[in-house]
Amino acid sequence: MMFGRTPQLPAPEQALKGRPTPEFDVPSRHTVLGNPLLGPYPDGLETADFGMGCFWGAERTFWQTDGVWTTLVGYQGGYTENPAYEEACSGLTGHTEAVRVVFDPSVVSYEQLLKVFWENHDPTQGFRQGNDVGTQYRSAIYTHSPAQAAAAEASREAYQKVLTYSGHSTITTEILPADTRPFWPAEPHHQQYLDKNPGGYCGIGGTGVSCPVGVAKTD
Q: Residue 162 needs a FRET pair 20 to 30 A away by CA distance; which of 55, 85, 87, 125 works?
């Protein structure tokens, strides 16, 4: 499915079965921000989930954003329960590499996080990001409320306009509800990978086109 062929998502019946419980424990705290990785999170915070290529660089982009309380990486949008990294990379789980962003909306809005998302990868590439090829690198937004879904759709429309004007192709980002697409945390060594390995591979890069923020700027 991965080598020498065009990547494609498996049907549910083709996906690996996975396992009922994870084979590892998620670290308790973020190595940079110092806050817990797993919920329940403090009152007033909100959660956002994004897939934008290799999750190592995506996670660092968000933990460097003011108002972000914690981040963790994992697998989302597929079928396999508690997948391993090698399984997700095989293309047989249906997941994309994702970063969960827990944020304080009084400091940074969801719309501002969408701007970070759009500008730090190329959302027009389908099942790839640059030299990283596979369904696990597809662009995705998994929403946690109707308000997030509406904001994500509006931002996609707005960004498509400026991308088209700049000569780029059609956005392939999937926007789907998170409640039916569980987020499975990745292995401990993937969490805050670029903090533990400052010279490590990043793999994400934007189009160089600025994204309008907010519905009012879509025209």
A: 55
